[in-house]
């Protein structure tokens, strides 16, 4: 017994519409997963529900940003304007600065200093000496 054809039009009953949306969304994401696994394709799916909620899937070996960059490259459509590019660069810069500060903090805590070169160790020692002097000055002023 086969399935009957349905007329493709908006479902008026909101409960039925939500159930259909949920089932079809899951079906689309399942198909995207299957084509990723079977064909080693890079796939991204973004679905926005009418309540504003976003549902997304992208291949495990890639990111949504990578896929959008590829789309922009092949289609010639400009997805990112200069403002967004500047914001992306700023985010990358702040992330790198954050990572550098975390490494420096680990070094100040005495962790992972075996990988430091002699000049870096000298700078670390000077920073610790300055920090110790500041603490002693503050302690003396209290």
Question: Could you please describe the fold and organization of this structure?
Answer:
It is a single chain. With 142 residues, the protein is mainly alpha-helical. The chain folds into 2 domains: 1-79, SRF-like, CATH 3.40.1810.10; 80-142, no CATH class. Helix content is 63%, strand content 7%. The chain has a two-stranded antiparallel sheet. The model has no long low-confidence stretch (mean pLDDT 87).
Give a concise summary.
The protein is mainly α.
CATH fold call of the largest domain? SRF-like
**Helices and strands: which structural class?**
mainly alpha
CATH C-level of the largest domain: Alpha Beta
Helix content: 55-70%
The profile of the biggest β sheet is: 2 strands, antiparallel
Question: What is the number of domains?
Answer: 2
Number of helices: 4
Are there runs of 5+ residues with pLDDT below 50, and where?
none
Radius of gyration equals: 27 Å
How far is it from the N-terminal to the C-terminal residue, by CA?
88 Å
Provide the β-strand percentage band.
5-15%
Order of SSEs: HEEHHH
Care to count the β-strands? 2
Q: What kind of oligomer do you see?
A: single chain
